[in-house]
Amino acid sequence: MSDADIQPTFDSLGLAAPILKAVADLGYEQPSAIQAQSIPYLLEGHDLLGQAQTGTGKTAAFALPLLSRIDVTNKSTQLLVLAPTRELAIQVSEAFQSYARNIPDFHVLPIYGGMSYDTQLRQLRRGVQVVVGTPGRVMDHIRRKTLKLDGLQALVLDEADEMLRMGFIDDVEWILEHTPDGHQTALFSATMPPVIRKVANKHLNNPKEVKILTKTSTATTISQKYWQVSGIHKLDALTRILEMNEHDGMIIFVRTKAATVELAEKLTARGHACEALNGDISQNLRERTVDRIKKGQIDILVATDVVARGLDVDRVSHVVNYDIPYDTESYVHRIGRTGRAGRSGTAILFVGHRERRMLQQIERATRQAIERMQLPTASDINEQRVARFKQRITDTIDNEDLDFFIELAASYQKENDVDPVKLGAALAHMAQGKTPLLLKELEVRQERRERRDRDDRPDRAERAPRRHRPVTADAMPLKDNPSMDMQRYVVQVGYRDGVKPGNIVGAIANEADVESRYIGHIEIYEDFATVDLPADLSEQAIGKLNKTRICGQRTEISVLKDADALNERASNPSRRPAGGNRRPAGGGERRGDRRPGGGGDRGRRSNSAPRERRGKRSE
């Protein structure tokens, strides 16, 4: 075996011992390609330009080595990570916390629009070694001098192309220019458009380059589905799926070695022929276990990623991702255990509320939409159980020697004068034993924050600029919640400012903490826009929005009261004063103070940013 064929381990990469222990505790068995190539460069202090698809393990690729170099005795900010959305900022921050679980006195802080300044300021004053933030809020703290970067050792741009798409690239460059010289810089991006390459050439010092070409194709013979974890325990959900789906062989993937043993034991206790397969099991026993599923002596393997790589068992008809994988490449390898040699297969993915981002990454990477599935109901299961019980009776009548039992039943019936049907029911009850035949329907608790549908979007259009589209003061009802009382607002930015619906949605969702499903119809005019929002929007939320930048413009939002004045303004856009503070001509009541220098997370849109797709919103 050549050196190129040897798979690196986390132990071989030079990471600090506390981090290696955390990695093992989290169930990471082998570094992904981007991790294996990036970690040594970052540990050596090189600048890095990394290109790999989202979902390939980039967070660990920079977090693990840079965390290894953090000095916890120093409370100043040593690492700054820029992320395009608050969701990613939170996710990266939580990843740092997980990797640092064995490092005392380590502190990480996510900062983003919509989060209380007081909370952020308190933690910044106490001292945090790592800050993960969105560009707008990071800029704001730098301007206020509440985020001090004198001790900065490293800066990471995560998902740089996404920051470009969302219009943050000017903000990113401003931040880079306001950081001290001499720090290490890493830039990660799924694509490398010219603008990102230009930023890298300007701000990275002789960087090492890592480019990962990820296998993303999945067999067309594999039917892919996902279940949104909600209401019942994953084990109970898995049991329902096993009972209702006829399967030959099955592999269930979990993240940790301990989980393989635990889940295999629980499934065995529920009557399934099941065994665990993980790296702690000897090679001989692993081979015997694989041989047993090939021969049909067991039907289910519960495995981790590494030991199942290359596993080729023809009879595997189903793959269940009980734990969602850490990266998209692992997903492709997992489901590739079924649908082989032209056979059909089924892959099922369990997705928790906080794992929806990974689901989207998998869909993007594989270029396939994954169908949402509903769990079988108790009624579905009971119907099948009754049918199977009846079939057992039929099979017993057809295939077994019943002479003695016929004589016994006839004798009992004669002696006790029992109705034959009642006698049969008693015998059926005896055969079933203490285990109830029928399943009681649990009241499934709907996840409070779960979207009604993944493709659910409010009614909003992205249209070419229109100067004479009539303005009306009447808000449109939400398509999926028509009973909600809506109010039409006017926002003092328009096409002239480069604004698109996604910019407005992102500002409102981030700063006012309004869920996107409650943001209604948006119309954009030359120098203003209208948006339908819940009528009970608080004064505090309006106040936050009036301190927000949209596409680099300080704006104000107010209830739309005088549609005629706005129609006049739409017909004569040149009448609006250029730049500076703008009063809402005909905009009616102003709610909330407007202060200069507000720091939302909407940066000025670069002219080089690609055109936003119709209906897509910025996070």
Automatic annotation (TrEMBL):
GO MF, one example: ATP binding
Gene Ontology BP terms: cellular response to cold; ribosomal large subunit assembly; RNA catabolic process
Any single Gene Ontology cellular-component annotation: cytosol
Catalysed transformations (reactions): ATP + H2O = ADP + phosphate + H(+)
Top-level division of the source organism's lineage: Bacteria
Keywords: ATP-binding, Cytoplasm, Helicase, Hydrolase, Nucleotide-binding, RNA-binding, Stress response
ATP-binding keyword on record: yes
Biased composition (Low complexity): 572-584
Motif (Q motif): 8-36
Residue spans of biased composition, Basic and acidic residues class: 440-464, 588-604
SUPFAM superfamilies found in the cross-reference section: P-loop containing nucleoside triphosphate hydrolases (SSF52540)
Listed EC numbers: 3.6.4.13
Region annotation Disordered: where it falls in the sequence: 439-481, 562-619
One Pfam family hit: Helicase_C
Compartments (UniProt record): Cytoplasm
Chaperone listed as a keyword: no
Family that this chain belongs to: Belongs to the DEAD box helicase family. DeaD/CsdA subfamily.
HAMAP family hit by this protein: DEAD_helicase_DeaD
Protein name as it appears in the record: ATP-dependent RNA helicase DeaD
The organism of origin for this protein: Marinomonas mediterranea (strain ATCC 700492 / JCM 21426 / NBRC 103028 / MMB-1)
Protein's gene: deaD
